[in-house]
Amino acid sequence: MLAQQIVNAISLGSVYALFALGFTLVFGILGVINLSHGGIFMLGAYAALLLVTWFDLSLWIALPAAMVFSGLVGLLIDVLILKRLRQRGAPHLMPMIATIGAAILMTSLAQGVFGSEARRFPMEWFNDETLKLGTITIPLLQAGITSLALVLMVLMMWVLKRTRLGQALRAIAESPRSAALLGIPVERLFHLTSFIAAALGGTAGILIGLSFNAITPFMGQPMLHKGIAAIILGGLGDVRGAVLGGLFLGITEVFAVTFLSSEYRDALSFGLLFLMLLWRPQGLFGASATRSA
Amino acid sequence: MDWSSWWATYSTLVLSIGVYGLMALSISLTLSCGLLSLANAAFMGIGAYVSAVSTLQYGLSFPSALLLGTLAPSSVALVIGVPVLRLSGVYLAMATLGFGEVVRVVALNLDITGGPLGLNGIPLFTEWWHVLLSVVAVLLLLQALRHSRIGRAFEAIREDETAARLMGIATHRIKLLAFVLGAAIAGLAGGLNAHYTFTLSPGNFGFENAVDILTMAILGGIQGLLGPLLGGAIITLLPELLRSLQEFRMAANGVILIAVVLFLPHGIWAPRRLARWLKKRSKHADA
After folding, report:
1. Looking at domain B3-286, which CATH architecture does it have?
2. Owning domain of residue A15
3. Number of domains in chain A
4. Do the interacting molecules here have an ipTM over 0.95?
5. How far is A60 from chain B (nearest CA, A)?
6. Interface contact A173, partner B, CB < 8 A
7. CA atoms of A293 and B274, how far apart (whole Å)
8. Within-domain flag for A285
9. Do A293 and B89 touch (CB under 8 A)?
10. Residues from chain A contacting residue B159 (CB–CB below 8 Å)
11. Which DSSP helix (H) or strand (E) runs through A136?
12. C-alpha A251 chain-centroid distance
């Protein structure tokens, strides 16, 4: 029973972490709170659903296609909105308001086109194939979701830590201006970051859509709140922190439901968030208190 | 349509214009000190709940309920302000958004706030002149503040915090003052709001509201005090004006937000832009 709950917790936590990772990438590298990340999460889920139900594609094709689609949405937002604001040197709150506008637009369009009711993936996939590991049985779907989320995260952290691309991105996070002076194509990497972050966000949407099997136009907003909580817990703008914050949030939620009751789920995680704000507002891994990035 | 039936239909809307004008002024106060705090909706919620519980469950008079509704969020602001104001820029925005979620979840889980159902049957004490009086009082206060030592300190901190500190300005205390005063105004607005809407629920003061309030201030412009009032009025009226678009009404709202940020960065009411424009015109007239 306990082992089973641990598996559930890691599964949920890894999807939160994937979402938070994209969110924190944009935050750390572009210095922008991208409030449309929840909208992209929702569009990713719908894209996969449409490819599967309207075009009869298998999930193996629909998943990467929907990832690319979400990435392109993120790129579009960067090119149409964020780029102009960067060029103007607009203050921090401008991209926040513009991206919330984009999120409202996405939610409203999704609502207009698909309706407000929850949509589902075709049920025949949810056959009861399971993996047996000793005494724990893990549904194959859950195992797949968790591994995909974990693999993408490890890949992303490896890229940031070990490759030249990652080095360039970290240089930009430190100071876009000095990075540009060093000959790093800053503007192109901003676009790439927006693409990757949105692709990760969209993937999280597909995975949540698969595991709860309910996709609605409004699923992005609560996820955005969890993303904010995860990156505050872990540390603002820190990739490792976002991943740990996301996992931690998932674990807290599952155990709060198991051992307390479902009413306390959000209360517990946000209570921890509040204590964190009082004790270490920069989060567990946040570098310094008064960075004005 | 005669006056009384017009008022019966539109009184909530008119009162909301005033209340959200107050909210936009409250956030413009912290913005004028360079603080990107998004906790104002949460402070409004605390004020609304505290004053509604005071009249509904403890039978206090309206003025004392409003006073409590103003004091409660300011004391909360004082407590969380000390650690949270160590953060700056987007980091502060994030932390205050997180705080807003905490408040919403607390309201959702406490018994005294009615949990997810919220509070019902709050007495309808708010009259139009209460709102008008509050707006005028807050405007006078902020106007006086602008031209005082403290107002100049706000401006110095906004332009360059390090320089301001080197000049001997107690930046932490001044920022805390802006944060607490902003919370007090938001609490007052919340108390007024609770006593004409009849009901309160935790969702009223969440993330969407925080962003709406920020949008009002930015849309109106924060160079002068009229901007936030104008922005509050527009954002409050917009859903009514766009009613014909039906389900795509919200889409129009999104497009307007993006367009304002891209094309009207200083907001609608920008005295400095107006002054420049008038100067240019007079030059043309001379030539």
Report:
1. Orthogonal Bundle (1.10)
2. 2-279
3. 1
4. no
5. 33
6. no
7. 32
8. no
9. yes
10. none
11. strand A136-139
12. 16
